[in-house]
Design goal:
Number of helices: 8
CATH class: Alpha Beta
Distance between the termini: 7 Å
Oligomer: single chain
Number of strands: 5
EC number: 2.7.1.71
GO molecular function, one term: magnesium ion binding
Structural class: alpha/beta
Order of helices and strands: EHEHHEHEHHHEH
GO biological process, one term: aromatic amino acid family biosynthetic process
CATH architecture: 3-Layer(aba) Sandwich
Helix content: 55-70%
Radius of gyration: 15 Å
Subunit structure: Monomer.
Largest sheet: 5 strands, parallel
Catalytic activity: shikimate + ATP = 3-phosphoshikimate + ADP + H(+)
Bound molecules: adenosine-5'-diphosphate, shikimate-3-phosphate, magnesium ion
Number of domains: 1
Strand content: 5-15%
Length: about 180
């Protein structure tokens, strides 16, 4: 099977749906943030603190190149900002199938405002909950030209529970089996 790259904004469900989709398809799952944390032996928040966003993006680019070459046939959940670095969308579109997972900004903001979600995402960690929705809307709009280079788009706004995630992964797997 071709490698599947899930892209989309922070909190849209790439990691959650990606793991369920890989299980459904019976293929390995790679989360790019987890891969980076293992490689660097440091959490994403510390990498941002020590090297800044630019330093993180350079590490993320190298990780993506490695994963695209080594994890063929896997489902890969990217970080929300992976598509913004020059060449990353071209790399993924050339190496497999890219799927843009979309979810409403309101739902994303509600998920990201949860303390444990906020704490692991340095771009929003210091924000008041009331600032998050505006930031999500503005930042998502800025990133849209990158996300829209995906080959497929899948709206997961209606998924609200873990059980629905599994059902959706099944639906998506069925769809993918017909196109791959
Ligand atoms: N379909 C869903 N229904 C309810 N909550 C979800 C769903 N998908 C994700 N979440 C919640 O939102 C949080 C962020 O999801 P995650 O998969 O980490 O998103 P991403 O990898 O795109 O940032 C998760 O911790 C999870 O609890
Ligand atoms: O959107 C972003 O710039 C980021 C998204 C995060 O991944 P998730 O989209 O899985 O939260 C993580 O890579 C990092 O905090 C930066
Ligand atoms: Mg994730």
């Amino acid at each position: 099977m071709t490698t599947i790259f899930l892209i989309g904004y922070m909190g849209c469900g790439k990691t959650t749906l990606g793991a369920a989709l890989a299980a459904e398809l019976g293929v390995p799952f790679v989360d790019l943030d987890d891969y980076i944390e293992e490689r660097c032996e440091a959490p994403i928040s510390l990498i941002f603190k020590q090297r800044g966003e630019r330093g993180f993006r350079e590490i993320e680019r190298r990780a993506l190149v490695e994963v695209a070459a080594s994890a063929t046939g896997s489902v890969v959940a990217c970080g929300g900002g992976t598509p913004t670095w020059p060449g990353n969308m071209e790399l993924m579109n050339g190496a497999g199938l890219t799927i843009w997972l979309t979810t409403s900004p309101e739902r994303i903001a509600a998920r990201l405002a949860l303390p444990e979600q906020k704490a692991k995402r340095p771009l929003i960690a210091a924000m008041q909950d009331s600032e998050i929705l505006r930031y999500v809307k503005e930042n998502q709009a800025r990133r849209e030209p990158c996300y829209s280079q995906a080959q497929l788009r899948f709206d997961s706004t209606r998924i609200e529970t873990a059980r629905e995630t599994v059902a959706t992964a099944r639906e998506l797997a069925t769809l993918l089996r017909t196109v791959l």
